[in-house]
Structures are given as C-alpha cells and as structure tokens.
Amino acid sequence: MNALESTSTRPYLIRALYEWCTDNGFTPYVAVLVDDTVQVPREYVKNGEIVLNISYDATSSLKLGNEFIEFKARFAGTAREIMVPVNRVIAIYARENGQGMAFPVPVPGAPPEETRPSPLTSVPAATDAEGKVVQLVTPEGGSAPPEEPPRPPSGPRPALKRVK
C-alpha cells in the first residue's frame, strides 16, 4: 500500500486526542461542519457548525470509527441519535484548556479526502547557474545604528483589591 492508497489519519488522531482528554480528566469536544450527511439536532446548529460534547458522561454507545462517529446523547432532555462522518469533524479539543487539533475544512464540491489525489510537488529547475543571494545582515560600517524601539507608556503600578 503506497501513500496514495493509505487511509486518512483523521480518525486515528480523533481517537488519540479523545483518549488523551479522558486520561487527563478533560471534556472532549468536537466541532463539526454540518451538511446533509451529518445527523445532529439542527436546532443547535449555528453558522453551519455544531460543537458536541463526546465525553463518557454526555454520551452512550459512543463509537469512534474510521468512517463515522456515532453515539446517543440528550439535548434538552430528549435522547437523540448522532452520526457524524469523520471527514466533517473540523476540530477536537479539551473544553477546559482548548488544547487539541483542528483539521482542514472540507471544500464544497471537492472529492472526499480518501479519493482526492495528493498535490504534486515539483523541484525547481537548476537553470540559474549563479543562484540568488539574499543579504540578511548589513555589513559593518554600512549605515547608521538602528533606532531603539519606542518604550511602552508607563502608567500607574497595577494593584489588586481585596474583596470580602
């Protein structure tokens, strides 16, 4: 199996970050880009996105598969079946500190991630015999010394007030 035939790394990264969140006592959240393939309560979708709590306490029958994330959850007391294609997940992160990972947003009309050909890389041709040189530092004695950056305005010293 070569790189073009390999499966997406997204479901593996989602599972790894889910495990990291739960091992550290964090609440894993997934941000999902909603379209017709996503089965979520539409009344909670804002700007075409929904954030779902996928912690053990918030879900039942959670399955983090290679193609779909499936679980049951309660929304305003009503049990709902949730099914999210993995390629619609745009982020997974811990609620408490925001640490996690964001994924590329799928482009409308583009083929799915698994069938999309990888971009070709080209090596620049060696037609320039001498090459280009970029000077990063000015030679000594070349110009006037650089000016010092302006100092930030100083105000009164910060203080805390004790409230009982």
UniProtKB/TrEMBL annotation:
InterPro entries: SspB, SspB-like_sf. GO terms for cellular component: cytosol; ribosome. NCBIfam families: PRK11798.2-5. This is ClpXP protease specificity-enhancing factor. Residues 104-164 are annotated as: Disordered. The keyword ATP-binding does not apply. It comes from Ramlibacter monticola. One of its GO terms (molecular function) is peptidase activity. Keywords: Hydrolase, Protease. The lineage of its organism: Bacteria, Pseudomonadati, Pseudomonadota, Betaproteobacteria, Burkholderiales. One of its GO terms (biological process) is proteolysis.
